Amino acid sequence: MARILITEFMDAPAVAQLQQAHEVRYDPQMVDQPEAMLHAAAEVDALIVRNRTQVRGPLLQALARCKVVGRLGVGLDNIDVAACEARGVQVIPATGANALSVAEYVIGTAMLLLRGAYQSQAAMVQGQWPRTALSSGREIYGKTLGLIGYGSIGQLTARLAQALGMRVQAHDALMAADHPAFSSTGVQAVGLDTLLASSDVISLHVPLLPSTQHLLNAARLARVKPGAIVINSARGGVVDEVAVVAALRSGHLGGAALDVFEQEPLKSGALFADCPNLILTPHIAGVSLESNERVSELIARKVLEVLA
């Protein structure tokens, strides 16, 4: 019987599935108890984490007998994958399991920001009737969605957007323009500058790498189509937060939704205070009731296969 440590939230049925076969320590608060986590790690055969547990440095060194790290999500920037592989530790992300949740987040926030009509409750409760001010919102039909990064999540987002009558174009530095992913979905492959200048909604779907750090910076934001919407549900650091706020305050951007941040959790939101047409969410684009179930079930099954 193997020992499994789970340091962040996992869906209860998946935890129970693991407990049927192995000894499981499930403590979703352990991510905030580094000393306890280091102590527990020394005796486990499998580690299951979300995005906050940093599987590198001291924690990785403590995993003396660990065979597998299950990631309840798809981003791997909190895991030193190369170092894990060098130690014979298999890293398993929940590829595809939360794609629909992210895609729906992108479409939902795009619709909200384009329409600009859903934050009038306070004024109306006070007896105001801001009908004129809220009558110039934009429809999503006929708009152009630009996807930066065209992996599985980007492709699913494209299909949802097309169902609503959007035109979709995409840029992916790792895909040639004749890649079948474009032709099979009816999406036009374009250069990054073209995408920025001609998209009404821009959504990022790239990992955080040295090459993508501040990919959307002040210079590139200046090339964005005036009034466009920017949505980052990928990784904090892919967009320059200071530059996004400046573009919103100047009116060049029509809106932005940020689900991920350079520092998580935010210790201070002062940068974003009173910023117009901005939606902030706490890294939950890929987290829904249904996606939690899919992600947890997939990782439980894959970890059990490794430990069999």
What does this protein structure show overall?
The protein has 308 residues and is of the alpha/beta class. It folds into two domains: 3-97 and 289-307, NAD(P)-binding Rossmann-like Domain (Rossmann fold, 3-Layer(aba) Sandwich); 99-280, 3-Layer(aba) Sandwich (Rossmann fold), CATH 3.40.50.720. Helix content is 35%, strand content 15%. It contains twelve helices and twelve strands. The chain has helices at 12-19, 34-41, 57-62, 81-86, 99-115, 121-125, 152-163, 180-185, 192-198, 218-221, 241-250, 289-307, and strands spanning 3-6, 23-26, 46-49, 68-71, 90-93, 144-148, 167-171, 188-189, 201-204, 229-232, 255-258, 278-280. The protein has a seven-stranded parallel beta sheet with strand order 8-7-6-9-10-11-12, with helices on both faces. It has a five-stranded parallel beta sheet with strand order 2-1-3-4-5. Helix 4 links the parallel strand 4 (68-71) and strand 5 (90-93). Helix 1 (12-19) runs parallel beside helix 12 and helix 5 packs across helix 7. The longest helix is centred in the C-terminal third of the chain and has 19 residues, at 289-307. It is globular. The termini are close together.
